[in-house]
C-alpha cells in the first residue's frame, strides 16, 4: 500500500512469460516466415486450443461470400460429410461443404409401396378383348396376332378403333404415354383403305387399289425421329396388306428423292409440318383431292415448336381442294372411306395450345380417352379436363442434389443402375441444351484406343454416321457390367447421324446410355428402356410427363429420377401430378454408386478413386474431372488465365504466345453458359421454383468440372474493350478479357461492383430469349 492508500495487485499467473521476438535484417519475406513460425510455436494446445475463435471458412471458389456473382438467399449448412485431403499436389475444396440446406424433411417422406402397382397402359386380357371383336378385318387381326405378337388391344385402342371405323367425325385422342395411341389411329385407317380391295369375307374385289390409286391419309409429327418411328410401325402393319404403300417427307432429307417417291405413288404420307408445307407449295404432283384423314400426332409439341402457321396452311389447303368421290382409276371411294375429311388430334397432355390447335383443325370432335368414365363425364359437361398422368407402374423419385455434387451424383446413379448384370439395359439422360449434351458425352466416353481384333474374327465395318455419337463409356462400368455404350442425340446433328444414332441405341445388345435433349421426349418407343434420368428439369411440367413416358411402356415396369437443387426447386414436385414423386437425399445414391472404385479412363489411374470411403471417392472423382479439363493434350497443365503472354525469341524479338486450349475445357465453358441461359427460360408459371437469382454460379460451375464460372453468359458482365461495330447491318460486340468477377481463373483481381446488378438485368432479358442458345 502506498502513501495514498491505494493497493496495487499484479497477478502474473503460473504460465511462463512469452518474450516478444523481433527479427531484423535480411529479406522481408524471410522475416515474415520466421515471425509466423514463432507465433505457431506460441499457440495454445490441448484444452486451451478449443477457446480460440473459429476462422471463417472460405467458399468453394476460394473467395468470401461478398465475391458471389449472384446474391444467395438460401441458408448454407455445415459439411454433410467429412473432407478428405488429396495426395495429388493440387488444392481442391470439398464438394460436401458450404452446400445449401434442403428444405425437405426426408424422415417424413412416405415410403415406397412394397407391392408394384397394376400397369395402367398394358394390353387388356386376350380372353376378354381382341382386335377382331373391335371391328378390324380378319386379315389385319391375324397379322397382328401372328407376325407382330399383338393379341389384345390396350384401353385407348379399344375405345378408339370402333369409333374411327364406324363414324366419320373428328376425334381427339388423349391417353398416357406408352399406351398405343399410334396403332389406335393407324389400324382403322389401314382397315378402311384395305376395304377398297377386299370384301368383308376376305375375298378380293375386282378393283384393287395400289400405290398409284391416290393419297388417302396424311400424318403430321413434330420431329423427324417420330416420323421415322411412325413409318416403321406402319410398315410392319402394311406387311399384311402389301399392295398399300407409305412414305415419309421431312427435313434433312433430299427433296428431289422425296418428289420422286411422291411421283411414284403412296397411299399414306408421314411428314413434318415444315417439309409438307414446302411440298404443297412446290410439288405439283402431290394431289390431296383424295385425302380423307389428317392426323396431328403430338399436337402440343408442334404448337410449341412454332408450326402454327404451317398447320393453318396445311389444313386450309386440304380443305380448299374439292373432295373427290372417286379416284383417277374410277374406284368409288364414298361409302367405304369417310364421306368427309376427318381430323385426328393426339396428345398425352392437354394444354392451352392444344385447345387452340383443336379450334384450327377440329370440327365437332369426339374426345376419346382410355377410361370410359372420363369420356362420359366429358360428354355430359361438354368440357375436356386436363390429364397429366404417368403410367401407374412407373416409379418416380426426386434427388435433392447440391450444385457442386451434381456431376459425381450422376455418375454414381448410372453406376448403381448398371451394377447388376442384366437388371438395366438402357437408360436415357435428359439435359436442357445441345452444348451440355456434347460436353457430357465427351467427358464420360472412354479415351482408350479400341482393342485390336483377333485374326480369326473379321473386323466389323464402323458406321461413319455414328463415329462421333456412339462410344464406350468410362466411369459407368463395373465388374458385373464391363461394357456400357454411350450415345448422344440432339437437334443440331445432321439427320443421317440422328437416325443412325437412334437406331444404334435401340438395337444395342450391350447396356447403353442415351444423353439427349427434349428431341427424344415425344413419342419415341425404344425397347427395354428401364430408367429415365432428368438431369435438368423440363422447361414445363407437361414436358416432364412426356420425358418419363420413354419408360414403363405397354405395361413394362420403369423408373424415373429427377435432379433438383436444394431450396426453391423442391416445391416443383407439387406440379408433377399425384402421387407426387418422392424426395430423396443424394447421399444414398453416392454411397451405393461409389461403393467400389471407379474405373477411370487412361492415362489416369484408378488409384485416385481407390479410397476407403465413398466421400473420399466422390471428392477424388470430382478432382479428376477438374484435372482433365485443366490438362492439355501434351499432358501439361492448361493455362486458364485466358490471356496472351509475351516472350522474347531469337534476336530479342518479342513474340505473343497464346494460351493452350483444351477442347474439353472450352466445351465445359460453353456448356455452362448454355445451361445458365436455358435455366432462365422456364415457363412463367414455374419461374418461382427455378429462380435464376437463387443460382450459385460458382457451385454450378463445379458440376461442369470448372474451378470458376466463365464469363460471357449474356455479354452483360464481361468487360467490353471495343465499341460495337457494324457488320452486314447488325451491331456486333467484341469482348476483351472477361471480368474478374466472372472469369478470374487465376484467383485474383478486383470484383466488379455492378456485376450482380447487370446480371439480373441481363437475365430478365434472357427470360424470353430462348433462341439465343441451342436447345436442340
What does this protein structure show overall?
It is built from 21 helices and 19 strands. With 776 residues, the chain is of the alpha/beta class. Among the domains are: 168-179 and 203-361, P-loop containing nucleotide triphosphate hydrolases (Rossmann fold, 3-Layer(aba) Sandwich); 390-448 and 465-630, P-loop containing nucleotide triphosphate hydrolases (Rossmann fold, 3-Layer(aba) Sandwich). The strands form 4 sheets. An 8-stranded mixed sheet has the order 10-11-12-9-13-14-8-15, with helices on both faces. A hairpin with a 2-residue loop joins β18 (725-727) and β19 (730-732). α3 runs parallel beside α4 and α4 (181-194) packs across α5 (224-238). The longest helix is centred in the last third of the chain and has 17 residues, at 614-630. It is elongated. The protein starts with 27 loop residues before the first helix and ends in a 10-residue tail after the last helix. The relative contact order is 0.11. Residues 19-121, 448-469, 632-661, 706-729 are annotated as: Disordered. Keywords: ATP-binding, Helicase, Hydrolase, Nucleotide-binding, Nucleus, Ribosome biogenesis, RNA-binding, rRNA processing. Residues 452-462 have a biased composition (Pro residues).
